[in-house]
Amino acid sequence: MTALLLILLGGLTALTPYIVHINVYYAVGFASGIGCGNWNTVSATWLLEMWSGRRLASLLQALNLCYGLGSILGPLIVRPYLKGYLGVGEQLLSEKLIADRRATLFVPFAVCGAAEAAVGLLLLVSLCSPIRYYYHHPRSLAKAAAAAEQCGSNAFNLKRLESPANRRRHLHIAFFALIMLLVGASNLAEIGHLSFEPVFLQSPQGANMSSSSAAEIASVTATAFTAGRGLSVLTASYLSPGALIAIHLLTGMASVTGLIFTQSSGFIVVALNSAAIGLALSALTPAILAYAHSLVEVDDRRNALFFTALLLPSIFGPLVIGPHLERFPSVLLLLDLAALAAALAVFLCSVLLVKRCASK
What we know:
By secondary structure, the chain is mainly alpha-helical. The chain is 81% helix and 0% strand.
């Protein structure tokens, strides 16, 4: 199913420049969103099924690092083929110009679509291949057995609560509900800030910067965001997922608070605060998923719920921020701070719940 959706997504991406009706464009966007959501869920679930422990945390961070690298490479691929908006009058003068621009735009869209379809084809070939080879290193099996014997660990106690016959199963359900709230609150801060940061920076009531300066700071934030994911691949090998969550939430709250009070202090100060915010937001989502997997079994159904909670802020975030951003741009920073504070409170509640399970 995933392989077919990726192949379909690649074809739709390649043909996007030739869509001339807005309703068709919406339908294609909807279908592409289903394909992207499916791949996000499936790729994370596969990692959860194949790996465990701190190696899993590093791999989840690496998965998100690849997403960040694609976000950087994507504009570089598209840039040579973009000519900017020529104005309605000029476009109406020449239908040939429109056709030429559509043919030019087909190149970057075809490159992206071919990459997506290639992944789907590789998955399809691997699934249809008659060769099945599974190997478990004896040391890996020994480590897994040793970990299972640690009955006093929090992970073991929580996973035992999953049995429907267990009277304390409601604690396990409560923990997973807290995880969904945690990922929703943290991603609300991430999506809201990265989406509306340029508008805030250019607003006269905000940082009051030029469009070029706002674009440069937005680039700094995106670069710090991607660099933070790369750094987290290493730090996740030494720090527990819970420690990463706490550090990044506290760093994010401190950075947003600093930007609230220094938004009019000049380009360098705002850029430094924005870079700190990008670093703070970079590792939260994979760290939360690793944290959940270290304490409960995350199967396909629960992982789908996880990504549903992850993407809900992309629907409601603009509805909350957009109407107030023009006349009160600081609403973006206040919402960031409130979302991160709520995420920290939910995280602390989950820690207390884990300790309660371990003590019984």
